[in-house]
Write a structure and sequence with these properties.
This protein has 321 residues and is mainly alpha-helical. It contains 16 helices and no strands. The longest helix has 28 residues. The radius of gyration is 20 Å and the shape is globular. The two termini are 20 Å apart. The relative contact order is 0.19.
Length: 321
């Protein structure tokens, strides 16, 4: 990955890490499913009228909207509302990198290199170390909900990679339209109309600010940038950067929510950063293949991929998405 792409991936991780603290604050204002529905409603409107028509098939928009918006975020918000602390949630959710790599290998044939596997192993050791430090702070059911949310995030990563949207911002805005009605319906059924109305009537500036952050910053910008990266690099290369999210998640939770961060937690953060550094390195063979591609006549065609074996079809012509 180019340095600018690495910097963007780290920025998205920071935005998503702080998001767990913001969610914790937001759950004091809204029931979890209503909160998630408002997130996507504000992310979609008025942006949906500004980004133009969808540029990928509706089947991909609906699939990612259900996997990411309804399943992943619905389960995450419920799990945190049920007792999972913000810092621990930001940590446990990163098991999605393993789900993503496994699903990408099974359905996209993206075989991670030995170096990237080693990097993921180091980073996951950091996740395990932090989990030991945290212990079972939240209820077991809430822990299981966040693990399931991580699996749904892995599914949405691979679906986004498969959809390969040419305009990630356009894609994310249209994806945000899908979860609104299902989440509102589930909220009315499980949380109740009176609880939802009470939350909306009590809306204040803090509650509104929380919704704006989770909608525009983490959803539109965060997932738009994430989709842009997935469009240009294998899912197994991009996904490990999400392992930086707990570094920012734990730090912001300690700063704003008073959650403790001990030596073991900082040691886990060091392992996470080291593991991500390993996974971000481009193997020598890929660098050579990229150089050969750029020096060939096919380089005149814009190819939004990172390696020659994915940029060329069996006939040797530049692949078009």
């Amino acid at each position: 990955m180019r340095p600018a792409h690495i910097a963007l991936a780290v920025l998205v991780a920071a935005v998503w890490g702080v998001n767990f603290t913001v969610i914790e604050i937001g759950l004091d204002h809204f029931p979890p499913l209503l909160f998630s529905a408002l997130r996507f409603l504000v992310a979609a409107l008025p942006a949906v009228f500004l980004v133009g028509r969808p540029k990928v098939a509706w089947k991909w928009i609906v699939a990612v909207g259900l996997a990411l918006g309804v399943a992943k975020f619905g389960l995450l918000f419920i799990g945190m509302d049920a007792g999972m602390p913000a810092g621990l949630s930001s940590l446990v959710l990163q098991i999605q990198a393993v789900f993503t790599a496994l699903i990408a290998f099974a359905f996209l044939g993206e075989r991670p290199t030995g170096l990237r596997v080693a990097g993921m192993a180091v980073a996951l050791c950091g996740v395990g170390l932090a989990a030991v430090d945290e212990g079972t702070a939240g209820p077991l059911g809430a822990f299981a909900l966040v693990i399931t949310a991580a699996a749904c995030w892995g599914v949405s990563n691979v679906l986004t990679r498969k959809a390969s949207p040419p305009d990630p911002l356009n894609f994310m805005v249209w994806v945000s339209t899908v979860p609104v009605l299902p989440l509102l319906g589930l909220s009315l059924l499980t949380e109740g109309p009176s609880r939802d109305l009470d939350a909306l009537r009590a809306l204040d500036w803090q509650g509104a600010g929380v919704v704006v952050y989770v909608a525009w910053v983490t959803t539109v910008f965060g997932f738009g940038a994430w989709g842009w990266l997935l469009h240009r690099h294998p899912a197994s290369t991009v996904a490990p950067f999400s392992l930086l999210v707990p570094v920012f998640g734990m730090s912001s939770a300690a700063l704003f929510l008073g959650e403790s961060v001990g030596p073991l937690r900082w040691a886990s953060a060091a392992l996470l950063v080291g593991g991500v550094a390993l996974t971000s390195r481009t193997p020598r063979a890929d660098r050579a293949a990229r150089s050969a591609l750029l020096s060939s006549p096919a380089s005149a065609v814009s190819v939004p991929t990172d390696s020659a074996h994915r940029a060329l079809d069996p006939t040797g012509k530049a692949a078009h998405r």
